[in-house]
Amino acid sequence: MLAGLSNVLKITELRQKVVFTLVMFLIFRLGTHIPVPGVNASVIEQLFTQGNLFGLLDMFSGGALSKFSIFAMSITPYINASIIMQLLTVVVPKFEQWAKEGDEGRKKITQITRYGTVLLGFIQAIGMAFGLKVAIINPGFDSILLVALTLTAGTVFLMWLGEQITEKGIGNGISLIIFAGIVSGLPNGLYTIYEYVRAGTINIFNVFLFLIIAVAMIVFVIAIQQGQRRIPVQYAKRVVGRKMYGGHSTHIPLKVNQAGVIPIIFASSVLMFPVTIAQFIDVPWVKTVAGWFAWGTPLQTILYAILIVFFTYFYTAVTMNISDMAENMKKHGGFIPGIRPGKPTADYLDRVMTRITLAGSIFLAIIAILPNFVGAATNLQGVYFGGTALLIVVGVALDTMKQIEALVLMRHYQGFMK
Predict the structure, then answer these.
(1) Contact in structure between 63 and 185 (CB atoms under 8 Å)
(2) Any idea which fold 1-184 has?
(3) CA-closest candidate to residue 252, choices 129, 343, 336
(4) Average pLDDT in the 327-348 region?
(5) Span 71-87, mean pLDDT?
(6) What parts of the sequence cross the membrane (predicted)?
(7) Where in the chain is the domain with CATH 1.10.3370.10?
């Protein structure tokens, strides 16, 4: 491992990329401590004393939401805009055409995604300003508009920061910003555990049990994230002019968790809707219904798992075009041994994808609802150790390591990972 790190430090270009990424992380962390003007942050911090959904959102923003800083919305509007654009690419012919045009088409899609980020960010900022106007010192129209514009500007700056990391740093910038926000909460979590032990709230056995569960979850997430079903593909030999093409074997890697963390985001957004609406409607029966959907209740947990399974199949079906995959394979003379090209190949791939997606959806559901049971088993109620966060951290770390490995292998025979 030390030899691999020395290889990284020897490469000037890679060293500069790593340093640039760390500087961007520092700017992000500094921004989480710049408060929004005209807001009493101490009032908002009272909402984050429990490990509820607000705590989950605060963790993704690196603590910026509980401080109500300029980065309080984090990069969430950009993620939502990207998901919407990805779905529209499937149903809007113009967007689908752009997606097939290479770099120029991707630039157009990226530009629309930026505009969508500003629009969604401003709408979300207005909602947050109205929902938390009890914390605004002078809750007038001007103050609410100022808060909304400040939050939107913070999100746009984070979007720019992420794009700079992607272009000049190492890894995917947007993912790394979320990664940095989650990891930044680790020292505070460890200090909370230490305070619990010192106060006698928990004992060493609880801490040991928590560590065992944490390690088991990390191993489980890595195994599923790396898991894939490899479908063998054989290409027939064909002669073009005086040259012979094809005649080689390869495979199609179908990932177990093809949808990533997107189904969890979808399911969380749907279940947040009743609770959000109840904050603006002061009617007893509405408050009662919203209480059924409160974070961690039995109904919310069951619906959460069901929605995650549904959205996993939905998102996988939208983003993976099995028919096009089979048709392209047929055009290039490829076939799966024992399966006829064309529709039989598409049916076979669809059948395999359906089976492994079931395993992936159950995995996501378990990961998402596991924190409720971890807190009950270890009595660590104030420490959020969520499978969702772990899934993001492990996924981003693996992707970044692969990029570093690729850059190192371009200049050395010996890589970074062994």
Answers:
(1) yes
(2) Preprotein translocase SecY subunit (1.10.3370)
(3) 336
(4) 84
(5) 83
(6) 18-36, 68-92, 112-137, 143-161, 173-194, 200-224, 261-281, 301-322, 356-377, 383-401
(7) 1-184, 203-379
